[in-house]
Design a protein that fits this description.
Elements (H helix, E strand, L loop, with lengths): L8 H8 L3 H9 L7 E2 L5 E2 L2 H15 L4 H8 L5 H32 L3 H11 L3 H15 L9 H7 L10 H14 L2 H17 L12 H14 L10 H15 L5 H14 L2 H13 L9 H15 L1
Helix pairs in contact: 5-6, 5-9, 6-9, 9-14, 11-12, 11-15, 13-15
Protein backbone atom coordinates (compact mmCIF):
# COMPACT_ATOMS: atom_id res chain seq x y z
CA UNK A 1 0.00 0.00 0.00
CA UNK A 2 1.06 3.63 -0.56
CA UNK A 3 1.36 4.22 3.19
CA UNK A 4 4.10 1.60 3.43
CA UNK A 5 5.71 2.27 0.08
CA UNK A 6 8.90 4.25 -0.39
CA UNK A 7 9.47 6.17 -3.61
CA UNK A 8 12.55 7.06 -5.55
CA UNK A 9 13.08 10.59 -6.85
CA UNK A 10 11.97 9.33 -10.28
CA UNK A 11 8.73 7.99 -8.74
CA UNK A 12 8.07 11.36 -7.06
CA UNK A 13 8.73 13.18 -10.33
CA UNK A 14 6.13 11.06 -12.12
CA UNK A 15 3.57 11.53 -9.32
CA UNK A 16 4.03 15.29 -8.86
CA UNK A 17 4.99 16.46 -12.35
CA UNK A 18 8.13 18.12 -10.97
CA UNK A 19 11.54 17.42 -12.46
CA UNK A 20 14.04 15.14 -10.77
CA UNK A 21 16.44 18.10 -10.57
CA UNK A 22 13.86 20.24 -8.76
CA UNK A 23 12.99 17.51 -6.25
CA UNK A 24 16.67 16.88 -5.56
CA UNK A 25 17.14 20.63 -4.97
CA UNK A 26 14.22 20.73 -2.50
CA UNK A 27 15.65 17.67 -0.80
CA UNK A 28 19.11 19.24 -0.50
CA UNK A 29 17.48 22.38 0.99
CA UNK A 30 15.84 20.23 3.66
CA UNK A 31 12.34 21.14 2.52
CA UNK A 32 11.52 17.54 1.50
CA UNK A 33 14.11 15.37 3.26
CA UNK A 34 14.39 11.69 2.32
CA UNK A 35 12.76 9.11 4.57
CA UNK A 36 15.41 6.49 3.96
CA UNK A 37 18.05 5.35 1.50
CA UNK A 38 18.30 2.27 -0.70
CA UNK A 39 21.13 -0.25 -0.23
CA UNK A 40 22.84 1.54 -3.14
CA UNK A 41 22.56 4.90 -1.32
CA UNK A 42 19.71 6.38 -3.37
CA UNK A 43 17.20 8.61 -1.59
CA UNK A 44 13.76 7.18 -0.84
CA UNK A 45 10.64 9.10 0.18
CA UNK A 46 7.32 8.18 1.81
CA UNK A 47 3.82 9.27 0.76
CA UNK A 48 4.05 12.43 2.95
CA UNK A 49 6.74 13.71 0.59
CA UNK A 50 4.18 13.83 -2.22
CA UNK A 51 1.90 16.09 -0.12
CA UNK A 52 4.85 18.28 0.90
CA UNK A 53 5.95 18.68 -2.71
CA UNK A 54 2.42 19.62 -3.78
CA UNK A 55 2.35 22.27 -1.02
CA UNK A 56 5.82 23.54 -1.94
CA UNK A 57 4.84 23.92 -5.60
CA UNK A 58 1.68 25.82 -4.63
CA UNK A 59 3.58 28.18 -2.33
CA UNK A 60 6.28 28.78 -4.95
CA UNK A 61 3.59 29.61 -7.50
CA UNK A 62 2.27 32.18 -5.01
CA UNK A 63 5.73 33.75 -4.82
CA UNK A 64 6.96 32.64 -1.38
CA UNK A 65 10.71 32.25 -0.93
CA UNK A 66 12.25 28.90 -0.04
CA UNK A 67 13.30 29.92 3.49
CA UNK A 68 9.68 30.82 4.34
CA UNK A 69 8.37 27.66 2.67
CA UNK A 70 10.68 25.51 4.78
CA UNK A 71 9.35 27.15 7.96
CA UNK A 72 5.79 26.46 6.80
CA UNK A 73 6.32 22.78 5.96
CA UNK A 74 8.29 22.31 9.19
CA UNK A 75 5.42 24.05 11.06
CA UNK A 76 7.74 26.69 12.50
CA UNK A 77 5.22 29.29 11.34
CA UNK A 78 1.57 28.86 10.43
CA UNK A 79 0.45 29.07 6.83
CA UNK A 80 -2.25 31.71 7.62
CA UNK A 81 0.42 33.98 9.16
CA UNK A 82 2.63 33.61 6.11
CA UNK A 83 -0.30 34.12 3.76
CA UNK A 84 -1.35 37.33 5.55
CA UNK A 85 2.17 38.77 5.43
CA UNK A 86 2.61 37.83 1.80
CA UNK A 87 -0.78 39.30 0.84
CA UNK A 88 0.24 42.58 2.51
CA UNK A 89 3.49 42.64 0.56
CA UNK A 90 1.59 41.98 -2.66
CA UNK A 91 -0.76 44.88 -1.86
CA UNK A 92 2.26 47.20 -1.75
CA UNK A 93 3.56 45.83 -5.05
CA UNK A 94 0.13 46.22 -6.65
CA UNK A 95 -0.10 49.86 -5.51
CA UNK A 96 3.35 50.54 -6.96
CA UNK A 97 2.41 48.90 -10.26
CA UNK A 98 -0.83 50.89 -10.44
CA UNK A 99 1.08 54.12 -9.84
CA UNK A 100 3.57 53.22 -12.56
CA UNK A 101 0.74 52.41 -14.95
CA UNK A 102 -0.94 55.73 -14.13
CA UNK A 103 2.32 57.64 -14.73
CA UNK A 104 2.92 55.90 -18.07
CA UNK A 105 -0.68 56.53 -19.13
CA UNK A 106 -0.38 60.22 -18.19
CA UNK A 107 2.92 60.49 -20.07
CA UNK A 108 1.33 58.94 -23.17
CA UNK A 109 -1.72 61.23 -22.99
CA UNK A 110 0.26 64.42 -22.34
CA UNK A 111 3.15 63.69 -24.69
CA UNK A 112 5.56 64.46 -21.85
CA UNK A 113 9.26 65.13 -22.34
CA UNK A 114 11.84 62.87 -20.64
CA UNK A 115 12.36 65.57 -17.98
CA UNK A 116 8.61 65.82 -17.28
CA UNK A 117 8.36 62.04 -17.16
CA UNK A 118 11.16 61.82 -14.58
CA UNK A 119 9.51 64.50 -12.44
CA UNK A 120 6.12 62.84 -12.73
CA UNK A 121 7.54 59.47 -11.70
CA UNK A 122 9.45 60.99 -8.77
CA UNK A 123 6.42 62.86 -7.42
CA UNK A 124 4.00 59.98 -7.99
CA UNK A 125 6.10 57.48 -6.04
CA UNK A 126 6.46 59.69 -2.95
CA UNK A 127 5.30 57.91 0.18
CA UNK A 128 2.20 59.10 2.00
CA UNK A 129 4.48 60.65 4.66
CA UNK A 130 6.58 62.47 2.05
CA UNK A 131 3.50 63.83 0.29
CA UNK A 132 2.06 64.90 3.63
CA UNK A 133 5.28 66.73 4.49
CA UNK A 134 5.14 68.64 1.19
CA UNK A 135 1.46 69.51 1.70
CA UNK A 136 1.96 70.58 5.32
CA UNK A 137 4.90 72.79 4.37
CA UNK A 138 2.74 74.58 1.79
CA UNK A 139 -0.30 74.96 4.07
CA UNK A 140 1.81 76.09 7.05
CA UNK A 141 3.22 78.86 4.85
CA UNK A 142 -0.19 79.85 3.52
CA UNK A 143 -1.89 79.91 6.92
CA UNK A 144 1.00 81.37 8.90
CA UNK A 145 -0.43 83.24 11.88
CA UNK A 146 -3.98 81.93 11.31
CA UNK A 147 -3.83 78.69 13.29
CA UNK A 148 -6.03 80.13 16.03
CA UNK A 149 -8.66 81.40 13.60
CA UNK A 150 -11.99 79.56 14.09
CA UNK A 151 -12.18 78.66 10.40
CA UNK A 152 -8.57 77.39 10.18
CA UNK A 153 -9.25 73.65 10.46
CA UNK A 154 -12.16 73.64 8.03
CA UNK A 155 -10.34 75.70 5.40
CA UNK A 156 -7.09 73.71 5.59
CA UNK A 157 -9.07 70.47 5.37
CA UNK A 158 -10.86 71.76 2.27
CA UNK A 159 -7.51 72.67 0.68
CA UNK A 160 -5.72 69.38 1.45
CA UNK A 161 -5.19 66.91 -1.43
CA UNK A 162 -5.59 63.21 -0.61
CA UNK A 163 -4.06 61.16 -3.42
CA UNK A 164 -5.54 57.62 -3.27
CA UNK A 165 -3.32 54.54 -3.06
CA UNK A 166 -4.29 53.51 -6.59
CA UNK A 167 -4.66 56.83 -8.47
CA UNK A 168 -5.71 56.92 -12.09
CA UNK A 169 -3.71 58.73 -14.76
CA UNK A 170 -5.72 61.96 -14.37
CA UNK A 171 -5.12 62.03 -10.60
CA UNK A 172 -1.39 61.41 -11.02
CA UNK A 173 -1.10 64.23 -13.56
CA UNK A 174 -3.15 66.51 -11.26
CA UNK A 175 -0.93 65.67 -8.27
CA UNK A 176 2.25 66.43 -10.22
CA UNK A 177 0.90 69.80 -11.35
CA UNK A 178 -0.30 70.61 -7.83
CA UNK A 179 3.09 69.68 -6.35
CA UNK A 180 4.71 72.08 -8.82
CA UNK A 181 2.34 74.82 -7.63
CA UNK A 182 3.33 74.08 -4.02
CA UNK A 183 6.92 74.94 -4.90
CA UNK A 184 6.09 78.17 -6.79
CA UNK A 185 7.16 81.06 -4.48
CA UNK A 186 4.85 83.51 -6.25
CA UNK A 187 1.85 81.23 -5.80
CA UNK A 188 2.72 80.56 -2.15
CA UNK A 189 2.86 84.31 -1.43
CA UNK A 190 -0.32 85.02 -3.41
CA UNK A 191 -2.21 82.23 -1.65
CA UNK A 192 -0.99 83.43 1.73
CA UNK A 193 -2.43 86.87 0.96
CA UNK A 194 -5.69 85.23 -0.07
CA UNK A 195 -5.83 83.26 3.19
CA UNK A 196 -5.29 86.38 5.26
CA UNK A 197 -8.10 88.12 3.40
CA UNK A 198 -10.35 85.06 3.67
CA UNK A 199 -9.91 85.22 7.43
CA UNK A 200 -11.22 88.79 7.29
CA UNK A 201 -14.07 87.78 4.97
CA UNK A 202 -15.25 85.20 7.46
CA UNK A 203 -16.27 87.84 10.00
CA UNK A 204 -19.85 87.41 11.20
CA UNK A 205 -22.75 89.77 10.66
CA UNK A 206 -23.72 91.03 14.14
CA UNK A 207 -27.40 91.13 13.20
CA UNK A 208 -27.83 87.74 11.50
CA UNK A 209 -24.85 85.69 12.69
CA UNK A 210 -24.19 84.69 9.05
CA UNK A 211 -20.71 84.74 7.51
CA UNK A 212 -19.89 87.73 5.33
CA UNK A 213 -17.94 85.75 2.71
CA UNK A 214 -17.07 88.02 -0.21
CA UNK A 215 -17.00 85.26 -2.83
CA UNK A 216 -20.57 84.24 -1.96
CA UNK A 217 -21.76 87.81 -2.33
CA UNK A 218 -20.02 88.15 -5.70
CA UNK A 219 -21.70 85.02 -7.04
CA UNK A 220 -25.09 86.07 -5.73
CA UNK A 221 -24.92 89.51 -7.32
CA UNK A 222 -22.87 88.99 -10.48
CA UNK A 223 -23.95 85.58 -11.81
CA UNK A 224 -27.50 86.87 -12.61
CA UNK A 225 -25.91 89.88 -14.37
CA UNK A 226 -23.71 87.55 -16.45
CA UNK A 227 -26.66 85.34 -17.31
CA UNK A 228 -28.69 88.41 -18.32
CA UNK A 229 -25.84 89.63 -20.54
CA UNK A 230 -25.44 92.93 -18.69
CA UNK A 231 -22.35 94.82 -19.83
CA UNK A 232 -20.11 95.65 -16.83
CA UNK A 233 -19.41 99.02 -18.49
CA UNK A 234 -23.16 99.79 -18.54
CA UNK A 235 -25.02 101.79 -15.85
CA UNK A 236 -27.22 98.67 -15.52
CA UNK A 237 -24.30 97.12 -13.64
CA UNK A 238 -24.34 99.80 -10.93
CA UNK A 239 -26.89 98.13 -8.58
CA UNK A 240 -24.88 94.90 -8.52
CA UNK A 241 -21.62 96.75 -7.91
CA UNK A 242 -23.29 98.83 -5.21
CA UNK A 243 -24.51 95.69 -3.42
CA UNK A 244 -21.03 94.13 -3.50
CA UNK A 245 -19.28 97.26 -2.26
CA UNK A 246 -21.88 97.67 0.50
CA UNK A 247 -21.24 94.05 1.53
CA UNK A 248 -17.49 94.63 1.59
CA UNK A 249 -17.93 97.80 3.64
CA UNK A 250 -19.85 95.74 6.22
CA UNK A 251 -16.99 93.23 6.31
CA UNK A 252 -14.54 96.07 7.01
CA UNK A 253 -16.91 97.83 9.39
CA UNK A 254 -16.57 101.06 7.39
CA UNK A 255 -18.71 103.45 5.40
CA UNK A 256 -19.41 102.53 1.80
CA UNK A 257 -17.30 105.19 0.09
CA UNK A 258 -14.77 105.59 -2.70
CA UNK A 259 -11.91 104.38 -0.50
CA UNK A 260 -13.70 101.11 0.20
CA UNK A 261 -14.42 100.74 -3.50
CA UNK A 262 -10.70 101.15 -4.31
CA UNK A 263 -9.79 98.67 -1.61
CA UNK A 264 -12.31 96.20 -3.01
CA UNK A 265 -10.85 96.67 -6.48
CA UNK A 266 -7.37 95.80 -5.16
CA UNK A 267 -8.84 92.83 -3.29
CA UNK A 268 -10.50 91.41 -6.39
CA UNK A 269 -7.35 91.92 -8.47
CA UNK A 270 -5.48 89.73 -5.99
CA UNK A 271 -8.25 87.15 -6.08
CA UNK A 272 -8.20 87.11 -9.88
CA UNK A 273 -5.26 84.71 -10.12
CA UNK A 274 -5.77 81.80 -12.56
CA UNK A 275 -3.41 79.68 -10.45
CA UNK A 276 -5.94 79.71 -7.59
CA UNK A 277 -8.67 78.44 -9.89
CA UNK A 278 -6.31 75.79 -11.16
CA UNK A 279 -5.45 74.72 -7.61
CA UNK A 280 -9.12 74.14 -6.81
CA UNK A 281 -9.64 72.22 -10.07
CA UNK A 282 -6.63 69.97 -9.43
CA UNK A 283 -7.68 69.48 -5.82
CA UNK A 284 -11.12 68.29 -6.93
CA UNK A 285 -9.61 65.80 -9.40
CA UNK A 286 -7.21 64.36 -6.79
CA UNK A 287 -9.90 64.07 -4.10
CA UNK A 288 -12.47 62.62 -6.50
CA UNK A 289 -14.92 65.51 -6.15
CA UNK A 290 -16.80 67.50 -8.80
CA UNK A 291 -14.65 70.25 -10.29
CA UNK A 292 -15.92 73.61 -8.93
CA UNK A 293 -17.29 76.30 -11.21
CA UNK A 294 -14.60 78.88 -11.90
CA UNK A 295 -14.97 82.27 -10.22
CA UNK A 296 -12.92 83.91 -12.99
CA UNK A 297 -15.87 85.20 -15.10
CA UNK A 298 -17.44 86.73 -11.97
CA UNK A 299 -14.17 88.40 -10.99
CA UNK A 300 -13.50 89.70 -14.51
CA UNK A 301 -17.01 91.22 -14.72
CA UNK A 302 -16.71 92.79 -11.26
CA UNK A 303 -13.28 94.27 -11.99
CA UNK A 304 -14.49 95.87 -15.19
CA UNK A 305 -17.54 97.32 -13.44
CA UNK A 306 -15.50 98.71 -10.53
CA UNK A 307 -12.87 100.14 -12.86
CA UNK A 308 -15.59 102.00 -14.79
CA UNK A 309 -16.90 103.54 -11.55
CA UNK A 310 -13.39 104.55 -10.53
CA UNK A 311 -12.76 106.49 -13.75
Amino acid sequence: MDGDTLFSIGDLARRTGLTVKTIRFYSDCGIVPPTDRSPAGYRLYDIDAVARLDLVRTLRDLGLDLATIRKVVDREVSLPEVAAAHAEALDVQIRILRQRRAVLTAVAERGSTPEETELMHRLAKLSHRERRRMIDDFLDTVFDGLHDHPAFEAVTRSMTPELPDDPDAEQVAAWVELAELFQDPGFRFSTQEMAQEMATDRALDDTTGLPLVLANCLRRQVVPALEAGIDPASPLADPMVGAVTAHYARILGRSNDGEVRQRLLARLERMDDPRKDRYLQLLAVINGRPVPVSLAPVLDWSLQALQRLGQ
